[in-house]
Amino acid sequence: MSAFQLQALVVGYESPLLTANLSIESGTAAILGPSGTGKSTLLATVLGSHPAMSGSIVINGTDVTQMPIHQRSIGMVFQDPLLFPHLTVSQNVMYGLRRNGLNKTDSLKRALELLQWVGMQGFESRSPQELSGGQAQRVALARALAPNPAVLLLDEPYSSLDAELRNRLATEVADLLNERDVLAIHVTHDQSEACRITDAVYRVEHERLVAVAN
Amino acid sequence: MWVFPALFLCIALGLPLAGVLRNSLSDISAVDFSPQFGIAVTAGGQALISTIGALLIGLPIAGILATYRFRGRGFVQALVTVPFVLPTVVIALAFRELFGSLLSPGLALVVIAHIYINLAVVVRIVGATWQQLDPRMVVAARSLGASPWRAFLTVTLPQLKAVLASAASIVFVFCFTSLGVVLVLGNGGTRTLETQILRQTSLLLDFPTAAITALLQLIVVSIALLLGARASMNATQNARNLRFTRLSVIRGIRARTYVFLVAIAACIFVILPLISLASGSLRDSHGWTLQWWQSLTELDAGTTRLGSPLTAVVTSVKYAVITGFIAGVIGVLAAMSVLSHRLGRAILVIALAPLGISAATLGLGFMLAYGRPPLDLRGADLLIPLAHSIVAVPLVIAVVLPTLRSTDQRFAVAASSLGARPTRAFFTAYGPILRIVAFAAAGLAACVSLGEFGAASFLARSSSPTTPVQIVKLLQRPGDQSFGVACALAVILVLITLTLVAAIDALSRKRWVKV
Amino acid sequence: MFSSVFKKIAVLSAASSLALLAACGSSQEQAGPAAVTLLTHDSFVVSEALVAQLKKETGITLKITTAGDAGAMLAGAVLAAGSPSADVMFGVDNTLLAKATNADVFSAYTSKNLDLVSPALKTDTGNGVVTPIDYGDVCINIDDAWFRKRNVAVPTSIDQLTQPAYKDLLVVQDPATSSPGLAFMLATQAKFGDQWLSYWKQLEANGVQVSGSWTDAYESAFSASGGTRPLVVSYATSPPAEIVYAANPKPKKPSTSVLTDGCYRQIEFAGVLRGTQNEGAAQQVVDWLLSPAVQADLPLSMFVFPARANTPLPEVFTKFATKVPNPLQLPATVVDANLKTWLNQWDEVMNR
């Protein structure tokens, strides 16, 4: 039994955009393809912010297709960091921990660990407005991983950064995810990035997900 | 840039008020403060309850309108605005018709009517900011384990804190200074400082006490507005986070049900009292009839001798257009100076101050300042729109400010760095937005003018009353006809307003601008 | 950087607004000696034909401006006493007359036709500054059908209103915010003297309802208009107004009647404002208000009785308007001296 499975999952709005069959045990899978092919819609459907047309999403043996977002145990890093502007950096990371029942002291402790892990120690009490794009995206990663989600979704997380920073951050994050053995799905349109940092690569072809030999 | 709005305020507001003060502060030693103080406290309590109620009911409506795209959204948004621009006397009457024996006049009815009227303020002002919050922020919170309700409390609400404070301060001021609603629905027992001012000026002619009461009212109002302005200026610092985001499609059965229920409840709440007006226009003592509508075009409406009711509609529309122009220009200029001047907060408070000045005082002041040589504007078509503009400018500012704030100044910088002259740069950046938002704001000002009664009753020529004045005159006479024709006129006013607001919304739904 | 732009916009709009202002100012007719401004309250109505006739006969162009209700109008006039914004004021009644005369609002003139006014109406002309133009009585109106249906006897005096048979049947107006409400309070003062407060205490105990305005009391609370209370403070001329403003086909007779006890007489006056530049023309307008044509027009315009004796009344008045035999009235100076105290006492007794 795989850790993460998409079984004939059909995503789309009025009409189907994409049918996905996918099974991942561990590591990072990349989904490649030009924009408009339904990649982002697929992630939204997996996350639960958009309803599936048919098929199912199974995580660790549980069918989560009809579950509300907050019960799915899926983390997400968006194209923009989307840090909560009214909270400090550490409060942002603590947010998911607090929602999962951790008390204030423990969640602060864990948040500081995570911030150190993403290389953002010393920024704990800053406001998100004071961070650069790359810094904010690191915090967003820490925040998404804090509650230990079963799956992490990354939706072109570096697309708003300049090329040099993008490459550096992509490699760093890939290493971090490897180190923690996080099961992640990474959507991108950058083929080289996909091949460099991920274990398996899928491509959208003719409204289907097709595995690409690595 | 701030010179012109300031000049306008001085001429249109300062001069009349100075006249009232000069004429009334002759003998202040004999004034007894204490009763006014007690009334201020009671009125403050009433205003607080009304404000909380308007926020609680207005928030869900603002939320669905700011978040989702759905069929009938434009209608709901326009409908919710209607109560705000209806003459308070008409609303009060509709409520009496609706609740009849169910709820006798008193505090409860006053509070419900205040909530009804101010729903638009909450929905419009809070909605303008809410619409600029990134909906993905909530999705992010949800993915971190927050339930929808939790995500609202911990992510959406904190980001709305500033705008809630500013909306609350405006609603508070409206309820604190309420006159028409309190007179008709207050059972004589619920009083505000405004009703006291009325009693002191037009019954006891005790001007020193009236001036002191007006001053006390102005102090409370200023404090409320200052608190609101402080909060909303703090929001400016966060404004860079705000960006225009598209409305999203409703997903999932639960969201669908929620949006449906809120929209339906909002419509029912707003429409019910209006239905009692419509049915009043279609009934006489014998049953259903069209005769009130048929008599609208008659010179005399039978025997009312007030001139044809439709003439009043024409007069109102004319004044509304002029008011829209004046208040639109002044309001936009004032909003721009609030943003760019280092004394922004102070300017904002002064520009909003007209909210707290009683219509009766304003009317009296206008009469004194402009009613006699050398500046005898009385009967001129400009006087009423001028007074209406004073009432409308604060709302224009409230509409324009959030949009201007969220417009990134970097556009202008970019444009000028490419070699454009500052003028060109300005218009490249602000031109399209400004044009649309100015139209929208002017439209709102026109709506305010359509429904304004207090100042118009002081300044109208008896041969050409505005529609609200005409309605009230009709309601001051016995007989089925007076009531029926008044209801028909009220329905026309509702329809014009609804059309105008819907047009504004359609205009502002084009890229960039949210009203 | 943008300030220059803003300045341009500001100057432009300032210029255009000022131009507008100037245009509006100049489009107005110049107030020459033949133009008279009549300041009045917002219930004033006169037929346009009569204004045209005045112009034809005397050359006077009459401009009518309203200034809120009678009290608000007077407030404006008092504040501007001596340098008025109008030439003639109509609509001050016997309740407020002393306020006007104390503030020296009027210049000395009573109409040359004052001798044609019924004697009872001209006992007080503020020492020769105002002319009575019309009068009316504030009385309790009765929804006859309500009493007939329940077989309850219609009250014949206001003393009975404190009896259990009339519990929860009366609606009055707050004297502080409504003119008929004030008149009814003065009526109880005139009728019961020192005992007036105890009368109100009994009314309160008997479930009297207080509305903020005539409109709410009459249009909403009064059972003849769909409310629940069959007794309301209104005017003696409300029943004929019910006929005139009724739906078609007009009923043969009104369904309401008047309780002729406890009625308070209101007399409306006109006077020349002190400081006017058109003394002579202003006096002519006061005379015009008392002329046979205008007097005959008043009943159906404002539902009042003309002050000029022997003015023919319209049929609806002769048939349905109740003549009150002994209306109550208090001297203007007494009202002026005590009004504030009475209002406060009333507030206290009625728990307001």
Automatic annotation (TrEMBL), chain A:
InterPro entries: AAA+_ATPase (IPR003593), ABC_SmlMolc_Importer (IPR050093), ABC_transporter-like_ATP-bd (IPR003439), ABC_transporter-like_CS (IPR017871), P-loop_NTPase (IPR027417). Pfam families: ABC_tran. GO terms for molecular function: ATP binding; ATP hydrolysis activity. Residues 1-214 form the ABC transporter domain. SMART domains: AAA. The keyword Nucleotide-binding applies. Keywords: ATP-binding, Nucleotide-binding, Transport. PANTHER family: SPERMIDINE/PUTRESCINE IMPORT ATP-BINDING PROTEIN POTA, SPERMIDINE_PUTRESCINE IMPORT ATP-BINDING PROTEIN POTA. This is Unannotated protein. The lineage of its organism: unclassified sequences, metagenomes, ecological metagenomes.
From TrEMBL, chain B:
Residues 40-228, 313-504 form the ABC transmembrane type-1 domain. Keywords: Cell inner membrane, Cell membrane, Membrane, Transmembrane, Transmembrane helix, Transport. Its main location: membrane. GO terms for biological process: transmembrane transport. InterPro entries: MetI-like (IPR000515), MetI-like_sf (IPR035906). It is found in: Cell inner membrane. Gene3D superfamilies: MetI-like. The keyword Ion transport does not apply. It is a multi-pass membrane protein. The chain crosses the membrane at residues 46-68, 75-95, 107-127, 162-185, 205-227, 258-278, 319-339, 346-370, 382-404, 425-451, 483-504. One of its GO terms (cellular component) is plasma membrane. This is Unannotated protein. It comes from freshwater metagenome.
Automatic annotation (TrEMBL), chain C:
One of its GO terms (molecular function) is thiamine pyrophosphate binding. Pfam families: SBP_bac_6. GO terms for cellular component: outer membrane-bounded periplasmic space. GO terms for biological process: thiamine transport. InterPro entries: ThiB-like. The keyword Nucleotidyltransferase does not apply. Coiled coil: none annotated. Keywords: Signal. NCBIfam families: sfuA. This is Unannotated protein.
